[in-house]
Amino acid sequence: MNFKGRDIISIKDFSKAEINHILECSKKMVPYAKGEKYTNILKGRVLSSLFFEPSTRTRLSFESAMNRLGGRVIGFSDPSGTSQKKGESLADTIRMADSYSDVIVVRHPQEGAARLAAEFADVPVLNAGDGAGRHPTQCLLDLFTILTEKKKIEKNKIVLLGDLKYGRTVHSLAYALSLYGVELTFVSPGSLKMPKEVINECKELGVEPRSTSSLEKAISDADVLYVTRIQKERFPDAEEYNRVVGIYKVDNDLLKHARKDIIVMHPLPRVTEIKPEVDKTPHALYFKQAFNGVPVRMALLSLISGGRL
Ligand code: NCD
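^ thats the input. predicted complex w/ N-carbamoyl-L-aspartate below
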């Protein structure tokens, strides 16, 4: 298995065996991610963190991961302070980051931007979310969270809820979960259904996802409820957004219909789709899930840089 120098553009770039290996490495990274142990395996390496779209968790956990490995970070969190403002192309910005660093993390509002970036860079490019496209590193931390909480990924009954049309995290996750033969149920407003392309990817892997608009029914025997935000910024029409916002709410009343050991996940940020009262229940896994971004991204950065613990 060789990860050195590889781009991470889509979770589909990895086999199940490779994903399992990344998850094993992530587990070893946990004490380092918590600051209980120290390592310098990426000393002298520089990461470019290029965020053309807002981010809290993805950017900070990538930066934390690089720092915890002994590396350094350069970059921006808002392109308005860069030469993009003067009309510079993405390709040229990427060429610069390529010559200033050893690995590039890029988030961009356009689907396909990370793939394009990888064509212009010799160093590895990691897709931190490309529009409504894919979000492979989030997918890996979501898998890691399910694995650590449920002890296995296989055979779980998993409900994906919310904006399945524009939500990039669920596009990557539905595919990856299908590799593990889980039971998938999609719950969304009619206008925000999972794209056919993703459903077909699941089917090709032997998983027939069910679709329903009844959340109560869907969660009654679920092991995992994965909630997503309605992706306001992707709507071409504000009225269409207003029609669907607030349509699903996860609260303690709803969770009475679920199994006692159901875990509630969310890539965050949440807006109104999970009530804060859920935070105090044992179901709430989303903050732990967000922490898991650090060990998983440490594993990825060390694997593609050829650094070993
Ligand atoms: C998600 C994203 O950016 O796609 N957030 C994240 O990376 N943790 C989800 C979202 O913005 O709703």
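The chain has two domains: 11-134+291-305, 136-289.
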